[in-house]
Amino acid sequence: MKAVFISATNCITPIGFDVAENISAIESGKSGIGRFENELMENPFYSAIVDQNKLDLRFDQISKVDNYTKLEMMMIVALAPVIAQSKSKLDDKTVLILSTTKGNITALETNNIPQAQLSELAQTIARFFNFKTEPIVVSNACVSGILAVAIAKRMIQANVCDDAFVVSGDVVSEFVLSGFNSFQAMSDAPCKPYSANRTGVTLGEATAAVYVTSDPTNAKAKILGDGAINDANHISGPSRTGEGLFRSIESAMKEANIEAEQIDYISAHGTATPFNDEMEAIAFNRLGLQNVPVNSLKGYYGHTLGASGLLETVIGIESMNQSRLYASMGFDELGVSQPINVIAQHSNATIDIFLKTASGFGGCNTAVLFEKVK
Amino acid sequence: MILENKLYISSWCSIKNGKIVLNGDVVFASETIDFNGFSKESYKSLEVNYPKFFKMDNLSKLAFLGAELLLKDVVDAQKENNIALVLSNQSSSLDTDAKYHESIADKQHYFPSPAVFVYTLPNICLGEISIRHQLKSENSFFIFDAFNPAFMADYANILLQTGKADQVLCGWTELMGDQYEAFLYLVGTQGEIENTQQNLETLYTR
Lengths: 374, 206
Hints:
The complex is a heterodimer of chains A (374) and B (206). Chain A has 374 residues and is α/β, with parallel strands linked by helices.
């Protein structure tokens, strides 16, 4: 099977508008999560929001057209440098894969159904950059972003396309805040993944973009294997045994032809809900991965829904290439029933292979293995 | 895409305009216009005994009925069935999104419900089908402007060729209000109709 690489990355988050800015914020222990008191929620809440003024200024450097939504602007600003760096011809063998959970859902507030359609969002982004092919939208709850990477790799390996741009994004809205709140899944403080003191999720917003290609020039990471397997257990809660995640990781490892001890770092999902974090600890133990350094980046970004898997992949690739393990922010005392090796402080480490995982509503899970390009 | 072995559509069904067609034969027809009524009648006529059906949103009901038609004689409860699920539509979960939005739009009548919110994701229908048939398998939900036979043929073939699945349940499950249209089909190594863009176009427009 032909080798597939990620060779350009970018992300737009509350703590940085490019990868270097994000890494420097993480290095200095800065979180994007803040306290808000506004019309989105009845009570004050914690969330990680991208500054609109800063976004306007950055967008203005790319385009003077001003009728884009916040999410569209964030996606365009994330993609623009990735497309420029890629040197892709954007011809009829180049695809755009867009992943999101709720897209422009705020369009419902003005009853603008066409704008709320995800295919319309994808067409808007595709038109901006003059893609020749019909965009592909992946909407698979909170695994969307990382699943899109697996799909890009699978399509390139099957010669369905030559190269792919993956962009993922979600924004914080009254819609998602009220929904997670109705599940009583929202934390009343910044989220604390894997901690004994965790009380739920903090929602955030971000976009991320990567270029996926079989051309090894400028490769940042090789995609070794993937799996995206359903729990077949419950639509709004994870399997108690972590079955789908276990099988997704197993499938990725089988394809990559590697053993558990070859994995140097896990960038996990870690939403800080009681059930999710517990489920992950069980799945990692079942696979013999309990000693592998693991973090959740939700303490820096909150849960950015469909964007999270790709955003965390982008940071994971930097982590690997800079030989740095970043602390799982918000972690203090282990609060899962099985032992896992949560990264408490930034440290240096050789990372040759890392695993990215995600799980979401509908019982979905995705695991992708990445290898350093030497 | 170049295939090592040919892959086939072993069965297909469509649910639209008050009619359920399985492998070319009408198996149920009704004059009922609204989807709620039609889905209830379909459930009865197919003799499905699965009370959870009535808790689902309409998109899940539509996908569930299509899956039921194609999987009931294929899934063997005694063993693992590695049947991947790959569904697609145009409107994602917007039908339920709009219902959920109504529950938060008016602060005087504010009643967000987790039972509705969970269905504001299109892939929940994949979870429902996975639970019903105990399919611990690859699943993904795609959004396109219209049924995309080229992509759907390729993606199912990729899952089969790479050994990620033994069979793939594919389809288009579009629902918005009382406008609904489902076209589902099963792809594997057995059958007579090759899983190609051309054949899918023909079956879909039939």
